[in-house]
Amino acid sequence: MTPYATYQYIWGMSTRTAKNLLFIITIAFFISGFVNITFSLLALLCMVIPFIMVYRDRKLSWCQGACPRADYLTKIGRFSLRKPVPRSLVSAKTRQIVLSYFCVNLMFIGLSTFMVSQGKLAPIDRVRFLIFLEIPWSLPQLVVLDRIPDVLIHFSYRLYSIMFTSTVLGTVLAILYKPRTWCGVCPMNTMSANVLRNLKRG
């Protein structure tokens, strides 16, 4: 085997290994919330990188092989009941409903964060499911950072909550149906596909 062929083999093997370990990023994200909630700001990367990759590759590279949650759902899917997926669950109408809910959620996050910054709303200090259902326990903060503005703590909990909600929903769907059923209605997938469609038209 030539040196170049050896390099290609090692590179290919390491790339495949890295892709199979993407799920660790999802687990590490939720663990980081127990270290300090501000680590949840990393969720912003998951909302930006997919679009960067669409513009760069002109395909859904993030959804097709780089999304840590997709890899996590694939791993969870090993325990799936694999019931038939209802057509209505992955229909265009459902995708639009989920996307609309996601946009409303982002708008609510932005508005509430602004109100906290103006002192008109107390910052939340609990994780919430589906925007308003408060989880009845606090996340332990193993590392306490002084002088973190209330607005940043509030924003961090909101981001953690939106990631928590979508991951719980994705896990339930993965166990009931196919592993990546959530990917069919994921708002990032829907928006990325819309952007890609517009790029191809242009």
Topology overview:
Blueprint: H1 3-20, H2 23-35, H3 43-57, H4 61-66, H5 68-76, H6 92-117, E1 128-129, E2 133-134, H7 150-176, H8 187-201
Antiparallel strand pairs: 1-2
Helix pairs in contact: 2-5, 3-8, 5-7, 6-7, 6-8
Structure, briefly:
The protein has 202 residues and is mainly α.
Would you give an account of this structure?
Helices cover 64% and strands 2% of the residues. With 202 residues, the chain is an all-alpha fold. β1 (128-129) and β2 form a beta hairpin. α2 (23-35) packs across α5, α3 runs parallel beside α8 (187-201) and α6 runs antiparallel to α7. The chain is globular and about 45 Å long. The model is unreliable at 3-15 (pLDDT under 50).
Q: Could you list the spans in which at least 5 consecutive residues all have pLDDT below 50?
A: 3-15
Distance between the termini: 45 Å
The level of helicity is 55-70%
Share in β-strands? under 5%
Task: Specify the overall morphology.
Answer: globular
Supply database-style keywords:
202 residues, mainly alpha, single chain, globular
